[in-house]
Amino acid sequence: MKGLMTTKNKKANISSPEKLTLGQYFVCGGVAGFANSFFAAPIEHIRIRMQLQGQFNSKTNFTGSYNAVNSIVRHYGLLSLYRGFVATMTRDILAFAIFFCSYEVLKEKAFEHNQGNKNLPMLIAIGSLTGILLWVPSYPIDVVKTKMQADDLKNPEFKHTYDAVRKIYRNEQLQGFFKGFTPCMIRAIFVLGATVGFYELSHGAIVS
């Protein structure tokens, strides 16, 4: 997608075609998030089922991931693996768009006058801040997705995404969309800080 944007900029005779605009980075990230959601939705669904089995009066007893997939498909059909897909897709489009857009902007501003010296602490800080920026708006959607994927498949409480949003708000108000927010932020700060920092460090070592 980034290559397509660069080609478009070249055709438009832009002086620096490789340098994408803020909107172009946002679109590239959103497309990546859309593609990612087709894989993330069933994988996260199975992960949540596995983590919750045996709890909250759950009657499921999967022996492993393959058994979980096989059992769910056999009893509820292939599409049941994609329960919560709309919420997953919405979350991923938003999160990936914000991630790539904010990451590129922050990196450019931080090293605007010193491109050759990308120190690790600054890169980690950029990754951590990017993690916060992407999760603040996308976390409520992630909560909706998780509740839908943890819902009973036979007699689901939530009929669809909007129904889940409506019922969560009715029963728990706004705070219902932010349960577990603090641990998520802590994880994002450390995980994305380390990911971005060491990715850039290794990338720099390879190209040099």
From TrEMBL:
Record flagged with keyword Lipid biosynthesis: no
Key words, A-Z: Membrane, Mitochondrion, Repeat, Transmembrane, Transmembrane helix, Transport
Source organism: Euplotes harpa
Similarity comment: family membership: Belongs to the mitochondrial carrier (TC 2.A.29) family.
Biological-process GO terms, alphabetical: mitochondrial L-ornithine transmembrane transport
Entry superkingdom: Eukaryota
Membrane topology: Multi-pass membrane protein
GO MF annotations, alphabetized: L-ornithine transmembrane transporter activity
Subcellular location(s) per record: Mitochondrion membrane
Keyword Nucleotide-binding: no
This protein's GO CC annotations: mitochondrial membrane
Positions of transmembrane segments: 20-41, 81-100, 120-139, 176-199
Designated name of the protein: Uncharacterized protein
Solcar repeat feature ranges: 20-109, 118-205
